[in-house]
Amino acid sequence: MKKISKTTRSNIVTYAMVILAFVIMQSLIAGGQVSSALKGQLVPICVYICMAISLNLTVGILGELSLGHAGFMSVGAFTGVIAAMSLQTLPAPARLLLAIVIGGIMAAVAGVIVGVPVLRLQGDYLAIVTLAFGEIIKNLLNNIYVGVDGHGLHFSVTDSASLGLEGGIVLINGPMGAVGIEKLSTFLAGVLLILFVLTVTLNLIRSRSGRAIMAVRDNRIAAESVGINVTKYKLMAFVTSAAMAGMAGALYALNYSSVLPKKFDFNTSILVLVFVVLGGMGNIRGSIIAATVLTILPEALRAVNDYRMLLYAIVLILVMLVTNNPTLKNGWNVVKEKLAFWRKKTPVTAEKGGGADE
């Protein structure tokens, strides 16, 4: 029997963790043990998990700091809304699926447009340019008007009246954002999207391309010296990350009746970056846990509303101090080594026998 590798076991545990969480939540919901506030957070939690995993691909695996990830999310959100609201003849699950796919494709296109010139930069310069991209997208969406009627889609950069709709509806109303959205997102769709994003990310990391991406991260000059196309692999990771953020954005937008462009600002990009840093750079499972805990935490602290954000900030600081404490890290490594030793140790069960019967 072929032995399962350590990496495969780790991936199976990650998938099982997501599926088990879904089963437990569904059981609690069926038993009426989940509050309405937590129910309303289930889809956003799934969205932020997908965002954290996708950004970890850029920040943790590729090693480049991006501060405009919310920009890709906004591209997916608004194109997903346009797709879902334009296809009223299709059943809701099909419209949601198409919206997520189209949102991901359009975000990937935006990733190519931004990535080709931007990925020539490194470090702080890359961070500043990606931050500028996120703000540009937000301001463009503030000035775009989209409507649909029997003649198809109508676009304008002036106002909604100039769309010339004949009995149609306005989908994107400039600074008022996407309005009149039919809520199509579900918790099941969110979990399926997490599993898809996990599959793409984990397979990419363990593939030949993933090893090339990590080689570029560790030493660009050494990677170039052995024939690795640095631009190709950096763009591959960046565009894949953007596409997954766009898919998460479409799921997010279709969970609300209206979505404003200002929701996808610098603060959202920083929030997702906090998930990645807190969970561990390059640690996919850590990103899942961090995104879940930090999304639930502000609502859990509503009982002390006056001090809610202060306590939230204190928790973040304490967690970062604990996770970066060398003494605690060394202690945890010792514990893991001892556990590994006892697992490998085989107890002696055979006993020395006496003389044989003759």
Any overview of this molecule?
The structure is a single chain. The chain is mostly helical and 358 residues long. The protein contains 13 helices and 3 strands. A 3-stranded antiparallel β-sheet has the order 2-1-3, with helices on one face. α6 runs antiparallel to α9.
Number of helices: 13
* Largest sheet: number of strands, sense, barrel closure: 3 strands, antiparallel
The strands making up the biggest β-sheet line up spatially as: 2-1-3
Distance between the termini: 40 Å
The overall pLDDT, averaged over residues, is 83
Strand content: under 5%
Radius of gyration: 24 Å
Topology of this protein?
Layout: H1 6-30, H2 36-62, H3 69-86, H4 92-118, H5 123-141, E1 145-149, E2 152-156, E3 169-173, H6 187-206, H7 208-218, H8 220-225, H9 230-253, H10 266-279, H11 284-300, H12 308-323, H13 326-344
Antiparallel strand pairs: 1-2, 1-3
Helix pairs in contact: 1-6, 2-6, 2-9, 2-10, 2-11, 3-4, 3-5, 3-9, 4-9, 6-7, 6-9, 7-9, 10-11
Q: Would you summarize the structure shown here?
A:
Helices cover 68% and strands 4% of the residues. The chain is mainly alpha-helical and 358 residues long.
Question: Can you tag this structure with a few keywords?
Answer:
4% strand; mainly alpha; disordered C terminus; 358 residues; 68% helix; three-stranded antiparallel beta sheet
